[in-house]
Amino acid sequence: MAVLTDPISDFLTRFKNAARAGNEEFTAPYSKMKADIARILQEEGYIWNYEVVTGKRTEIKVKPKFVDGRSVLTDLKRVSTPGRRHYVGANEVPRVMSGLGISILSTSKGVMSGGNAKRQNLGGELLANVW
Question: How confident is the model over 1-27, as pLDDT tens digits?
């Protein structure tokens, strides 16, 4: 198993690849941050559900959402990386695809979507944009 320097990017790439390939589900190594990102993706309607599977290794199993055989996810972009962090203030949270997508932020009150962060007047680290 290779050592990952950016596990969040790995999780998002697995999600994008599974959605494009039409896979019913995919698994990734578990972390609390990945579970929070999956929770946001479920709340926003990009995945059906996710579950934490314990066993030899703890993994997170995610089921991407498809409508009429097409993935709900069009694309996503990882913004902040371990080598280059990207922080935004409450007034600088971007609108993704003119409001058709979401941004995911890590704030002082936890991981949340950009819309929730704006409503709570919070800024933070911009993790990814999803549309």
Answer: 566 799 999 999 999 999 999 999 999
Return the closest-CA partner of residue 69 out of 20, 15, 26.
Answer: 20
Q: Which structural domain range is residue 21 located in?
A: 7-71
Distance CA 90, CA 45 (A): 24
* Count of structural domains, the chain: 2
Please state, in angstroms and rounded to a whole number, the distance separating the CA atoms of residues 84 and 125: 11
Q: Judge if pTM exceeds 0.90.
A: yes
Cα–Cα–Cα angle for 111, 1, 110, rounded to 5 degrees: 5
Digit-coded pLDDT (tens) for 25-42: 999 999 999 999 999 999
Q: Are residues 63 and 92 in the same domain?
A: no
